[in-house]
Amino acid sequence: MADNEFLRISDLHSFYGESHILHGVDLTVRSGEVVTLLGRNGAGRTTTLKSIMGLVGRRTGSIMINGVETVGLPPHKIARLGIGYCPEERGIFASLNCEENLLLPPAVASGGMSLEEIYELFPNLEERRLSPGTRLSGGEQQMLSVARILRTGATLLLLDEISEGLAPVIVQALANAIRTLRQKGLTIVMVEQNFRFAAPLADRFYVMEHGRIAEAFTASELKAKMGMLHEYLGV
Description:
Rossmann fold, 28% strand
């Protein structure tokens, strides 16, 4: 394993029941990197994140997290390796207020952010800390679902479509938060449909199609790859 390699996926096949979704995915993410998975809906990007967390029916191949093989591990043991997953559906508890939602997740590793640090990152949440989960706007709920995993001490964040359907001002706040987290040394894998949001944040990109990696390139190659991206994504 390379010294700073946090995640290495090799020949990953994933299944929901009889449905074969991922067909031999290979990708690596280095410690402290932001990597974005691009692709059309149904390309296998969300399934890749769920496979890392062990949330699919069956997985074969290899998923090494910090040198530990995790294909045979249950989700709670994978989380304890320092993995935080922010799913598309958010999962805010309506009966709890904003701060109670923040305090709910257990620590998976030491070094989780304090409430003060989280409120510095997301000032909106401090203003709404006593508001019930149901009274938060979509953007505030999205900030809360990202903030919640930062409390756990996770050092690899898996973020699924966090900018989807949100006002530009909220999207900008989330982009600023990702930049701050990267400066703190966190490793981030994003699935993102909003190319304008993802492009300036990522160090490297993987393009998925039909459950496989179709292309991989770095941020410095982005301009040269725009024609190819237009074909794959219509951007």
